[in-house]
Design a protein that fits this description.
With 190 residues, the chain is mostly helical. The chain contains 6 helices and no strands. It folds into 2 domains: 114 residues, no CATH class; 34 residues. Helix content is 60%, strand content 0%. Helix 2 runs antiparallel to helix 3 and helix 5 packs antiparallel against helix 6.
């Protein structure tokens, strides 16, 4: 039996089940869902920092003392060369996918198709694309790509606050504090 919001293969059905819907939207590898401007800039900055650090470490390890360019002379050098080559191939692919998923989600937040990411292929539109993605406010409320990311965060923060309040109320009630008992009997607001 599958969970609400997921089909039998575990993919999202698009129904806003609170427990699974938010997890799918915030995954950095999926192309569905929406992200806010803040998340967009945060993800791009994070990607650039990680990219710079990894390639700086690779550069330091490759040009370190005792390393000679050319064919490796022994097995450890051959393994190190292979490892560096794999990182040079795999890491940029993962980084490109991460940036693509981030931009697609931002286009979704603005109410456009993720195919708008193809504007990156035109050098003339590229600066305008980043200005639009980074500075324009997304559509308010749910759209065809999912719930408003700000509303999802607000809902989760409210749920956390409600849980904390219930714990505090329960602790006060066990001590016999009558004000906390009255506070726990208020109707649930959704």
């Amino acid at each position: 039996m599958s969970k609400p919001g997921l089909n039998s293969e575990g993919a999202s059905t698009g129904t806003p089940d609170d427990s699974t819907h938010y997890q799918v939207e915030t995954s950095i590898w999926f192309l569905n869902g929406r992200i806010s401007r803040f998340s967009f800039w945060g993800r791009l900055i994070l990607a650039n920092v990680i990219f710079s650090c990894v390639f700086a470490l690779i550069r330091i390890s490759v040009t370190g003392q005792g390393y000679e360019f050319g064919p490796p002379s022994n097995a450890p050098e051959a393994f190190a060369s292979l490892l560096v080559a794999l990182v040079y191939i795999v890491f940029p692919i993962a980084l490109i996918w991460f940036a693509l998923a981030t931009q697609v989600k931002r286009w979704h937040d603005l109410g456009h198709s993720g195919w708008m990411v193809l504007l990156n292929l035109t050098i003339i539109a590229l600066p305008f694309t980043f200005i639009y993605l980074g500075f324009f406010k997304g559509t308010e409320g749910p759209n065809r790509f999912g719930d408003d990311p700000k509303e999802v965060v607000r809902r989760e923060l409210a749920e956390e606050a409600r849980k904390r309040e219930d714990v505090i109320s329960w602790a006060d009630a066990t001590r016999g504090n009558s004000k906390s008992i009255q506070r726990t009997r208020r109707p649930n607001r959704k």
